[in-house]
Design brief:
single chain, about 290 residues, alpha/beta, five-stranded mixed β-sheet, 13 helices, about 40% helix, about 20% strand, elongated
């Protein structure tokens, strides 16, 4: 791609000697030419010489009756309604002058220069541009941090299983049966949340989840507890146990290497604070989606 995106200036619409002279076009400047190939398209070219050197009054024989020629190099073209084109640039094309300076749009022009031409010639409507800007402006990491911190500060230990249960209902298929368990049954199979997946016949597949509102170093007790599910579902005939999860809301993986080793030996998957944060933001976005739809 020719040129340096941080070149001295951005000039547009070369028309005649006086205007070019006043604007002092220099080699390396970018010029934007509206309606050159199509009505809604803008062509970007780059000056290959300074005005004082390159400007020519003569009519070139191979082109025809077009006096006042200035040498430029084609860079790329874009649709004025493309999603990468900011409003500040589209606004400049309302100007009725034949030549005008748009140095103030340099940052937005540089963004266009960094995009492939095939992605620039596609037009998009107001609604589509709004959607694209809304999505691209969304900072999921910051949002996840906000959701996580808000829940950590306002949620009691015993409430986590209910919050997660409702969240699972939002992000998992509707034909999954998701429920919290009573204390009495939990002691038997060690799970706070049971997810049942219906097979193609009468078989049910079980995911057992134990939730702990722990921080810092965690002992092996939660692993022992959730592993009760192996024996319970093997005997009771309620379904085939396919997964065991331990969700720890505040503890970090980095300081719980021994727990991870024990979990791996017993076929238990552990979600620590970082994974819980990702899970919560996924659930929160599902709730927001419902709100917007409603």
């Amino acid at each position: 791609m020719p040129g340096d995106y941080t070149t001295p200036g951005l000039k547009c619409r070369l028309k005649n000697f006086r205007e070019l002279r006043l604007n002092k076009v220099k080699k390396g400047d970018y010029l934007l030419i509206p309606h050159l190939e199509a009505w809604d398209e803008i062509v970007i070219v780059q000056a290959t010489q300074d005005f004082d050197v390159g400007y020519d009054f003569d009519i070139p024989k191979d082109i025809g009756d077009y006096g006042h020629i200035f040498p430029v190099e084609y860079v790329k073209r874009f649709s004025r309604h493309n999603k990468y084109v900011e409003g500040s640039i589209r606004e400049t094309f309302k100007c009725r002058s034949r030549f005008w300076n748009i140095d103030r749009c340099e940052e937005d022009i540089n963004k266009i220069l960094s995009v492939n031409e095939e992605d620039l010639i596609k037009s998009s409507g107001f609604v589509e541009r709004f959607r694209d800007k809304a999505i691209s402006s969304f900072n999921e990491e910051a949002y996840a941090e906000t959701v996580y911190n808000a829940l950590i500060s306002s949620t009691q230990a015993s409430e986590w299983e209910y919050i997660l249960c409702e969240g699972f209902k939002k992000i998992l298929p509707e034909n999954y049966s998701i429920q919290t368990t009573s204390n009495k049954i939990e002691k038997a199979h060690g799970a706070d949340i049971i997810i049942k997946i219906h097979g193609i016949l009468d078989t049910q597949y079980i995911i057992a989840i134990q939730v702990k509102d722990y921080s810092n170093t965690v002992g092996d007790d939660p692993i022992v507890q959730i592993c009760k599910a192996d024996e319970y579902f093997g005997k009771e005939g309620e379904g085939i146990l396919i997964d065991k999860y331990l969700i720890i809301t505040k503890a970090s993986k980095e300081i719980n290497t021994e727990l991870m080793m024990t979990a791996e030996k017993n076929g238990v998957k552990v979600l620590f604070d970082k994974e819980v944060k990702q899970l919560l933001v996924k659930m929160a976005k599902a709730f927001l989606s419902d709100t917007v739809t409603d």
